[in-house]
Amino acid sequence: MGFVWKQEETSEESKMSQLDDMIAWENGELDEKKTIKLFQELVNNGMAWRLQGMYGRQAKDLLDAGLIHYPVKHTAQSSIDYYGNPIPTKAQDEKIKKDKMKPKKPTFGSVAWQNEQAKKIQAKIKTHKPLDSADKAFANVQLQHNLGIGEKQAENIVKKANMYLSRPVRKRRVR
Question: In whole angstroms, what is the distance from residue 67 CA to residue 60 CA?
Answer without folding.
Answer: 10
